[in-house]
Amino acid sequence: MFGDNRGMSLEITEEIIARQPPEARAIIRALLAEIVELRGRVEELERRAKGKTPQNSSLPPSTQHPHAKPPRNKGKSKRRRGGQPGHPKHERPLIPTKECDGVQPLKPAECRRCGEKLAGSDPEPLRHQVWELPQITPIVTEYQRHRLECPYCGETTCAQLPPGVPQGQSGPRLMAFTALLMAYYRQSKRRTAEFLSTLLGQPCCPSLTVKMQKQVVAAVRPSYEALAAELPKQRQLSIDETGTKEKNGKAWLWTFVARTFTVFAVRPTREATALTTYLGEQFAGIVNCDRAKMYWFLGSLQWCWAHLKRDFQAMIDSGDPRAKYLGYRLRQATCELFEHWADYRAGKISRAALLRRMGPVRRKVERLLERGTQCGHAATRGTCRELYEHRQWLWTFLRHEGIEPTNNAGERSLRHAVIWRKLSFGTQSASGSRFVETMLTVVETCRQQRRNAFSFLTAAVEAHLAHHPAPSLLSSV
């Protein structure tokens, strides 16, 4: 019996099949067998998809509705919302009086009790400071280029613009600010133009923001390429990737997080070729990453235990009793690992004590993984076999000091990029992708180095207009 969306159905019985020629009977039976197989595969895929959550898979937390999340075991606090009685007061400190733009002394004219006239000054008056935005008006400088005629030959000569003056009507600070609005503050080109026109009094349209975007990329690209050239020399990197779009086609946004800088790259593929482009063929450092196979050729990996914890939760949610038992035991060992690591990070235990505590955890995990290679549940058996065969990549953080057991650095660096992607739906050109990867690199690197991104962008644009070398993002490396 086969149905369609209109409620109509067709029943194919053996009697109907028997009335057909032999060749037709063979074709019908083959098609029926294939339909049954496809239905089974669809049901299996639907069952798997229904059981996937951000807690047991790589699905992002944003895919799960807040009301669908499991309730917390933590009981409701009896405290009232907000600040508690007796908590320390937090307020913005006053700036020195000499730094204020204006000071207004306020003196009472008469006594509030008897009305007698008052005179004199208080040596320590109560200081009250009010912050306000200035009236924002663009600074417009007109350059009058005189064209003069030579009295001897009659040739006319026009004065040139001074070095550093742009050919267009946008100055360096305006270009840097516009780029930050679009890349860091996640505003569309139309909203950016509206903001500049409405709040800053700067005439602007979406096409002008595109022009400024290209000028900023040209100014900052040498700094970006200098950072990318440093990646193969790094001792340790955290690498992650997420899907995006370019020209409405599939693309991938990669992040490479070093100790003092981060490089983003938009590539058309998720294959290992994207890694060799930035790291080369002979990268000798250690990479924190998930279990994706395109990282395996790098050799020295630290698999992320936060991802592994989700894999173990998937075993628990599989419904198979043996897989559920293994998942519980492995997740328990993972929690022990994180407890010992937290004590080490907080300075409560030494490196030697960490290694001593991790010995039993390591043996327990490897015994469970070896046992899981014989599990009757296919997915669990495959996961355990892969982890056991590459178990050296689970404990790299114990062999090399300074290596984290998770890839949280890579995950955190992608957070802003993922939010930008959800708002913008990717880029519409290769030029837009270069803007995204360049600006994300500048913003995240400046955050790591505690530098002012706006000041850096302004200096880069000024240097580009004056034909000077671009400022370096490696100065603090």
Characterize the structure shown.
Helices cover 45% and strands 9% of the residues. By secondary structure, the protein is of the alpha/beta class. Among the domains are: 171-276 and 429-477, no CATH class; 305-399, no CATH class. A 5-stranded mixed beta sheet has the order 7-6-5-8-9. Helix 3 packs across helix 5 and helix 9 (351-372) crosses helix 10. Residues 1-8 have low confidence and may be disordered. Residues 66-90 have a biased composition (Basic residues). Residues 168-432 form the Transposase IS66 central domain. InterPro entries: DUF6444, Transposase-related, Transposase_IS66_central.
Q: Could you give a quick summary of the protein structure above?
A:
It holds the Pfam family DUF6444. This protein is α/β, with parallel strands linked by helices and 477 residues long. It is 45% helix and 9% strand.
List the helices and strands and how they pair.
Blueprint: E1 2-3, E2 9-10, H1 14-18, H2 22-51, E3 147-149, E4 156-158, H3 172-183, H4 189-199, H5 206-230, E5 236-246, E6 249-257, E7 262-267, H6 273-279, E8 286-289, E9 301-303, H7 305-316, H8 321-345, H9 351-372, H10 378-389, H11 396-399, H12 408-424, H13 430-449, H14 453-465
Parallel strand pairs: 5-8, 8-9
Antiparallel strand pairs: 1-2, 3-4, 5-6, 6-7
Helix pairs in contact: 3-5, 3-14, 4-5, 5-13, 5-14, 7-8, 8-9, 9-10
